[in-house]
Design a protein that fits this description.
The complex is a heterodimer of chains A (318) and B (267). Chain A has 318 residues and is mostly helical. Chain A folds into three domains: 38 residues, no CATH class; 169 residues, MetI-like fold; 55 residues, no CATH class. Helix content of chain A is 71%, strand content 2%. A two-stranded antiparallel ribbon of chain A has the order 1-2. In chain A, a hairpin with a 4-residue loop joins strand 1 and strand 2. In chain A, helix 3 packs across helix 4. Chain A is extended and about 75 Å long. By secondary structure, chain B is mainly alpha-helical. Chain B has a single domain, classed as MetI-like fold. Chain B is built from 13 helices and no strands. The two termini of chain B are 35 Å apart. Classes of the chains: A mainly alpha (318), B mainly alpha (267).
Chain lengths: 318, 267
């Protein structure tokens, strides 16, 4: 994932009038990105310093760090932040361990099918997170492949609950981030001269020593790049925790959306959801109401599925 | 012993590759199930779910919207990105490094941040200018252009770096003006980079979920969002069939790209 061509810079000497041509070439794209990307981020940052008046649900212009203080002290947010960091660290570590051998094999292979190998690593990246989440749902659902296989083998007699838990989220995010780690490592390993490794071997180093004293130090830039990229992506995962973790699983990115949902009158149907008491009073179910809630009848659901979904999309979401 | 180590290494690599591919394999498998509930082993196999896609308007509409947005964003992204790449690869200027970082920035800004900030920006624009911005088709396309540009810049710059300037100078010596030189010499020479940039840009736009979530208006959702909303509701072979269509389309685009530039060098 390096941009050698961009880093090296041009080699051509300057001629008269070229400055204007250059400006004409580069300005439209720069202005476009500045307007559509830098300006929005700047505004968002400015808003983060404003004051929020909860009673009026209004943002008042101000210059305060109160929002940041709240974010880092309010237990609601700090718990979410802690979960997110914990998961991101775990995911990054697993990606590094799983990704290194694959990156090494891809970097060193002489096979004619190397490009197919690369495509199969990159394809899932571009197919998108929703599609991959669908795959994991197929594997880990109560009647999914994983549970059906284990139950068929007689290892377990109750399906393991994986979907809508942290396990599913971690498994899903690792799969999302692994290609980034592999590609970062692979591009660096490819640049390491093979003869260096062979020199270590011919001087009698066992593979573990060669890895520790030669390959690892030389691959360190790739390890760093991959680790940072994976960590950042894991911190910002959205669709995967949303679909695999379920609505109660709050990592940082979906919690923003959840904040929205709470204000919109989203009703938690579970009692252990953490909602601030004032919000709970406004939207929560009383015990009486909770008794009226029913367990899902799958047959009935399947029959009326389209109608339900129509209702959900039209009256609730819209 | 040596063989054993080879096997261990290849085995570890295979595990990682299998892990990456597993969700796609299962989604493809599910698309061919006969029964509606995703339970294993399947009762049998059927192709009917692919026909079922066409019965649900939202998938057809989502596909059309994604296609429109992707094509338009890619076209505009090329018009903006190719000249920028020419400038970055050829002309020395003082702000070169910061401008290059600016153009590549959308690659590293997380989708949720892109989406939120653009959403807030569109609200502000709408209030300030008194025109519809939020949720319009053009606002969505503008967002997608931003994520297409870095791919175009990156891939075209890469192919310009390997281009010998002597041919262009020869053309100019023979009397061609810069415009003719550009169209007759430079463009054909960097066509692989342009094609690859266009395909990668399109694929990025077509598959984008996180940013688009914040930008789409009612009735104008893109395919990945339709998939997300459906999955929020349930998982069944129909959605798997839709996913297969997306996998085939994107996989095809990548195989074509690979014929023009070696993917290993550019991703």
């Amino acid at each position: 994932m390096t941009d050698a061509a961009l880093a090296r810079g041009p080699v051509v000497e300057r001629r008269r009038g070229e400055g204007w041509t250059a400006a004409a070439l580069i300005t439209p794209a720069s202005i476009f990105v500045a307007f559509c990307l830098l300006a929005p981020i700047a505004i968002l940052f400015r808003f983060s310093l404003n004051e929020f008046v909860p009673s009026k649900k209004l943002m008042v212009e101000a210059l305060t760090v109160a929002n940041y203080v709240k974010f880092f002290t309010d237990p609601y947010y700090t718990t979410i932040l802690a979960t997110t960091v914990r998961i991101a660290v775990l995911v990054t570590a697993v990606c590094l361990v799983l990704g290194f051998p694959l990156a090494y094999v891809v970097a060193r292979t002489q096979s004619r099918f190397k490009h197919l190998l690369i495509i199969s690593i990159v394809l899932p990246l571009f197919v998108g997170n929703a599609v991959r989440a669908a795959g994991w749902m197929t594997v880990f659902g109560n009647k999914g492949f994983f549970n059906a296989t284990l139950m068929g083998l007689g290892v377990i007699d109750q399906p393991l609950e994986i979907m809508f838990t942290e396990k599913a989220v971690v498994i899903g995010i690792i799969a999302v981030n692994l290609p980034f780690m592999v590609l970062s490592l692979q591009s660096v390993i490819e640049g390491i001269d093979r003869s260096v490794e062979e020199a270590a071997f011919s001087l009698g180093a066992p593979p573990a020593t060669m890895f520790r004293r030669v390959l690892w130090p030389l691959a360190l830039p790739g390890v760093l790049a991959g680790t940072i990229l994976t960590f950042v992506l894991a911190m910002n995962a959205y669709a995967t925790p949303f679909l695999l973790g379920g609505p109660l699983f709050a990592m940082m990115a979906p919690s923003a959306q959840e904040g929205f949902a709470v204000d919109m009158g989203y009703n938690p149907t579970v009692t252990n959801a953490k909602v601030p008491p004032d919000v709970q009073k406004r939207i929560g179910f009383t015990e009486e109401e909770q008794k009226r809630l029913r367990d899902l009848d799958y047959g009935y659901m399947a029959k009326n599925d389209t109608a339900f979904q129509e209702w959900w999309n039209k009256s609730f979401k819209g | 012993m040596r063989h054993l180590r080879r096997w261990a290494l290849n085995g570890a690599a295979a595990v990682a590759l299998g892990y990456i591919l597993m969700p796609l394999v299962f989604v493809v498998w599910l698309a061919f199930f006969r029964q509606e509930i995703p339970s294993f082993p399947p009762d049998g196999y059927s192709l009917k779910w692919f026909a079922a896609i066409l019965d649900q308007r939202k998938f057809v509409d989502g596909f059309r919207n994604s296609l429109q947005v992707g094509v338009l964003a890619t076209a505009i992204g090329l018009a903006l990105g190719v000249p920028a790449a020419l400038c970055l690869a050829r002309r020395p200027f003082r702000l070169r490094t910061p401008v290059a970082s600016l153009l590549l920035m959308p690659l590293i800004v997380p989708g949720v941040v892109l989406g939120t900030s653009m959403y807030v920006f569109h609200v502000e624009l709408e209030n300030g200018l008194d025109v519809d911005v939020l949720g319009t088709f053009y606002a969505l396309v503008a967002g997608h252009i931003v994520i297409v540009i870095p791919w175009v810049v990156r891939l075209v710059t890469a192919s310009l770096a390997g281009l010998d300037r002597a041919t262009e100078e020869a053309a100019q010596n023979l009397g061609a003006n810069p415009w003719v030189t550009f169209w007759r010499i430079t463009v054909p020479a960097i066509r692989p980079g342009i094609v690859a940039g266009a395909l990668f840009g399109f694929v990025t736009s077509f598959g984008n979920l996180e940013m688009s979530l914040f930008l789409v208006g009612p009735g104008r959702t893109t395919l990945p969002i339709v998939i997300l909303q459906y999955l929020e509701w349930k998982i069944d072979p129909t959605i798997a069939a839709v996913s297969v269509v997306q996998i085939v389309l994107i996989g095809g685009a990548m195989l074509i790209t690979d014929r023009y530039v070696k993917l290993a060098r550019v991703v």
